[in-house]
Specification:
Blueprint lengths: L1 H15 L5 H14 L5 H10 L6 H20 L5 E5 L6 H12 L4 E7 L2 H10 L9 E5 L5 H5 L4 E6 L11 H8 E11 L5 H4 L3 H12 L6 H9 L2 E10 L2 E10 L2
Parallel strand pairs: 1-2, 1-4, 2-3, 4-5
Antiparallel strand pairs: 5-7, 6-7
Helix pairs in contact: 1-2, 1-3, 4-5
Bound molecules: S-adenosylmethionine (SAM).
S-adenosylmethionine binds next to helix 4.
Length: 256
């Protein structure tokens, strides 16, 4: 599997040499991530190193748009305090945007950055080293599959997870995430946008099925949604970040 991943990454790097192929090569990377969507530290480390700590202009642009949607949804909740756990935070860019907004607008909050990789947590700490109020932030190495064990059942108010292959959306992770959320707890995570023409070629049959579902008024990520609903996570809303691109961001609420 690792060989296959390395081979795919090599192709991506070659494709990235040609400007017009950048999107296609990014998608190959996403596809590669999809293949390894498990808590395998070595494989994630390979991706982290090959993909410049998830830091590029395009990723930042998508995260910028995504963070605005997430902030709007969070503010709509009108909570007296926002206690956020981010799983799979990568380099912490998304969390830094959200934390900075809260601080600037005097909104009461606490933000816990977590990732499977110690490298990600070190990078996140470095990227947030100039954040003025460090006592509002927390950083931990944490496997999404162990949130309930480490932080406690029903301990979380808001869980965020983004990045195409967002860690909280692994099939095995959804029950753990659901268990870790307290009553009416919120999960915001993202999914691949199957309606994006760019991802169509990866599995046209499946995309056509999703496309027809969408035309019939069903949701583009209907199948994934079932897993959440089965785990008492009620679907609240979703938004396509950009039509041509991934991802779709979605919000769920824990119901008992
Ligand atoms: C595709 S990256 C996304 C990073 C960041 N959220 C973003 O949007 O750029 C996925 C992240 O999830 C982390 N990850 C993978 N498996 C995980 C697990 N089992 N528990 C926690 N984090 C995990 C990876 O280390 C990586 O940083």
């Amino acid at each position: 599997m690792l060989k296959r991943l390395k081979f795919q990454l090599k192709i991506c790097l070659i494709l990235q040499e040609v400007k017009n192929w950048v999107e296609l090569s990014n998608l190959l990377i996403i596809k590669a991530i999809g293949i390894i969507m498990k808590n395998d530290i070595q494989k994630w480390r390979t991706l982290f190193e090959s993909y410049n700590a998830w830091d590029d202009k395009r990723a930042r642009r998508v995260q910028g748009i995504e963070s605005k949607v997430i902030l709007r949804w969070l503010l709509d909740l009108k909570l007296p305090k926002y206690e956020i756990l981010e799983v799979g935070c990568g380099n912490g860019y998304m969390g830094s945007l959200i934390s900075s907004y809260f601080l600037k607008h005097n909104i009461d909050f606490k933000y816990h950055f977590t990732d499977l990789l110690p490298e990600c947590i070190e990078t996140t700490k470095k990227n947030l080293s100039s954040f003025p109020n460090q006592s509002l932030l927390r950083f931990s190495v944490l496997d999404v599959l162990k949130i309930d064990e480490v932080l406690g059942v029903g301990s979380q108010k808001i869980i965020l997870s983004t990045g195409y292959a967002s860690a909280a959306t692994y099939k095995d992770a959804v029950p753990v995430v659901a268990r870790s959320l307290g009553h009416k707890g919120i999960l915001i995570c993202d999914f691949v946008n199957h309606l994006s023409p760019i991802v169509f070629w990866i599995n046209p049959r499946r995309r056509i099925k999703y496309f027809l579902d969408a035309i019939k008024g069903k949701n583009a990520f209907k199948e994934q949604k079932k897993v959440f609903v089965m785990n008492n996570l009620h679907f609240i809303k979703s938004k396509i970040i950009r039509f041509r691109r991934n991802p779709i961001v979605a919000m769920f609420q824990k119901v008992d």
